[in-house]
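Archive entry. Fields below.
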Amino acid sequence: MKMVIRGNMATAVGAKLCRPNVVPAYPITPSTLFPEKMSEFVADGELDAEFITVESEHTAMSACIGASVTGARTCTATASQGLALMHEMLFIAAGMRLPIVMAIGNRALSAPINIWADHQDTISERDTGWLQFYAENNQESLDLMIMAFRISEDKRVLLPSMVGLDAFVLTHTFEAVDVPDQGDVDKFLPPYKPNHGTLDPSNPITMGAFVTPEHYMEFRYAIELAMNESRDVIDEVFEEYKKTFGREYKKLVPYDLEDAEIILITMGSISGTARVALEEMRKRHGKKVGLIKLTVLRPFPEKELLELTKNAKLVAVIERDISLGFGGAVFGEIAAKYVNKPDRPLITNYIVGLGGRDVTLKDFNEIVEKAEAALAAGEVEKQTEWINIKEDAL
Amino acid sequence: MTAAGESVTEKELFACGHRGCAGCGEGTAVRMILNTAGPNTIISICTGCLEVMTTAYPETAWEVPIVHAAFETSAAVASGIDSALKALGKREGINVLAFGGDGGTFDIGFQALSGMLERGQNVKYFCFDNEAYMNTGIQRCSSTPYGASTTTSPSGKFSIGESKDKKPIGAIVAAHDIPYTATATIAYPKDLKKKVKKALEIEGPTFMHIFTPCPTGWRYPSELTIQLSRWAVQTGVFLLWELEGPDFRNIVINKKLPNRKPVTDYLKLQGRFRHIMKDEETLQKIQKMVDEKCEMYGV
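PREDICTED_STRUCTURE:
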């Protein structure tokens, strides 16, 4: 069934199709429609779940943890400050191996306070042990929610997942979305039946124990192994989703890479703008520029990245976040994966669209011109450049 | 440690061999609660002494399912458990308890506690009050009494120790209009167990504030834990009461005190008050604070 809906609604409809048992959620711009819609589904009897009107995001995640450890399927949504407030509990959800799913309306962090599109919130949570997916449009927002439950609950993974969609550009923008049939989703995602211990008086277990240096590292290593395992699980689930619902997903989505000397890398909604810009460049100027869209940032898709860029002369990482005092966080991660490759491409980095500033075709033209100049010179003068900065306002 | 006049013969759900200090009041309280609650119980605990002394992997002192997440989360996690059991059709017959220390209840977990109470979750909250952050090494919190020397409210040339009196947590909690609020201490196990039983029979959130002396933090010989629990009541320092609903005109005082012991009898047994024992002015001030509280509660 086609529906014309906002991105937030897509995540709520996607979550509803997964029949969660417990939804603790707290309002925050730009994700507020998620708790509104989930409470409405419960109020109207469309969803048989307990909706908990928690008093903070910290409690939202804590209640998700309590519900998940009792054996319930659980999900929530938040953004920006709310995600930052959850930070402590994100480690605990992952450390206790709980397959919680959360939609994030990717938004900038204070100060100054700003409610618009920016990836700083989820980028700052890369080390928490959550799988991270980034949607380009509302269809992906819905599909990734469904797939996230399936991947997280796989016994080879048992780690929580977050699905990011850009503030306003996606969360509040109406797009046509193909909504799967409930019956098909039920087949794709059977009810959550954990085959590990849950809080059950007939089989008492202690969860969240105190662990000394003698054992702590093995707990952390086990998470890393699960992250590694999740790479194959993600491929399997993407493949099955394509067979069931007809839409193809990849961790890294290539565009016009065959003869590309310069490859741009993007995440989220700017990927569409990038494709339009590249199409123009090819058509009008014959420029050999391709694009990779990152859909999965955790686990980091290293193998696919190195394979897709093996013929590139320059890789330009374009991102909506900044690791202050370093440069782009995604750039840092990507560059690190080439470090032992003797024939690596030049790698450049462009910071764009922070706090919801529009990222335009003009910006992409400027980025490609800068990349071309670096390629012609055979060296990168400035590793991280800020695009569309008003220097005179500083 | 067995309290006088009370035999403990039920199956122990809080196993012996945990790592609590000798004379730990909290351990005794937990054991009494579990003896009353029985095996059909799930507990959410918070970071603190209880977590450290009972869950050191790969051992556990718990014969009932428990979960520990963070310091401020026992009420929040218990909310998730309560709702999950409801959603899964398993709520009937299971007690969902949340345990917090005084720091985890009065201070850092207060918001989560308030939220849980206000939502009316079917969670029985128990606060074990030893009047400071003991697990981190005796730092003051909002339950620390006036005059107590702690490592962050030290007595000194310009300090008498803690400069504020204890936050009235029971009154604040009762104001949430919850069905049942009560206080108890391990020196009166029949009273404590009767209140636990009552809390468990009530649908909706309940709160019990349990006074649990700490020999390490209060600096007294470990065999005095029960005596101090009793003397806290007999001096009027800690009052035993219960209340259904928010209206304090309905308060039931469980221990009337026509002849209260002087508060100095209680203070002088504890190293944390040693610096004020020759300070008549401060002792009189503390006695007056206790007198006023007793008068207010009609003890």
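CURATOR_NOTE: Chain A has a mean pLDDT of 97.
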